[in-house]
Design a protein that fits this description.
single chain, Growth Hormone, Chain: A, mainly alpha
Amino acid sequence: MISFLKQPHKCFITKGEIPELGFAEFISLTAMMMSLVALSVDTMLPALSEIGRDLGIIDNNSSQLIISLFFLGMAFGQLLYGPVSDNTGRKPAIYVGYGLFIIGCLLSLAATTLPVMLVGRFLQGFGTAGPRIVSIAIVRDRCEGSAMARVMSFVMTVFIIVPIIAPALGQGVLFLAGWRAIFASFLVLTLLSLVWFALRQPETLSKEKRVSFSFKRIIGTMMTIFSNRSAIGYTITAGLVFGFFFGYLNSAQQIFQEIYALGAEFPFYFAALALSIGCASLFNARFVVHHTMQFLSKSSLIAISVLSAGFFLLAFWHHGHPPLWTLMAYLFATFFGTGILFGNLNALAMESLGKIAGIGAGVVGSLSTFISIITGTAIGQSYNGSVLPLTAGFFILSLASLAAMRWAEK
């Protein structure tokens, strides 16, 4: 990876008022901005039970809404930031997102009831959609095709460090200062990344390429995207894939801490599975040069389907409580396939949207997130004290993803 970062890249052309920005720094900065999503979710997982108790939540499954409302806000936000960035440039749109995220953090920090917490989480999701989605548009401004897939894979590799360490950080902050301090840490890290971005990242959308903001144009562009079989098909596929991963995020804390009674050890098991996704992203960055994105994605989905069918039978045999080591082996292999899918499916969905990258990134991100919220929430709310709903969800959604991908390729 290091040798690759030192090589020149035709998709990265340094220009503008900050000529010294290098490719490695570009990847690191992009990954840090995108990591606000993972940070805002994974750091919260160890604290969900304590937050639920403090806010008077009776049903433990209701605590999952703290995760779901964040993604719901992000889904709506992604529709806004694309068109705004096409009109004002990429940087102003990201500034707006940072501001809304900070307001949401302050609300959650002061929350004493579940509704206030959920409003704060919605605003955090709405805000973080700015850095998340416009960062992809910035990459698309510079790269396309397999070059974009390779850059996104390296971004995801750096980005995956956050899910590896975030639950442990959340557990540590929870132990030392309580769950409200987690939101205070969000504020500090957000301000640091904002300053880095403002000082070091040049604008990638020149003024002559910007277009006026109009709802008529937005609707027209959305219709163009929806009529693009490849873009919409791969977007649906990405949504279904993230759906089963979102189902895991919703129920991971309950599975590991309630079924297997891991307690404070939960972050370490979560980190091991996140490491699998990071390794897969690095693997994908190397092999996407030799194999098509379609081949790698389809192979991963087939493998996930077969593994999920086999593990469901094993879990059923053990009455929904298979040995912990078998669950970890299954999830590690499954998330390796998921890591290959993340970078490729986003690149495939965006590949034909170069001239409308801003709105394209917004629609692709928003639609895939809405799909994942519906499917992932269904999996999470089906949690019944066993791993059967999660495994069944993985199997069903991987088969549906294969069908959607086949439709996209016709």
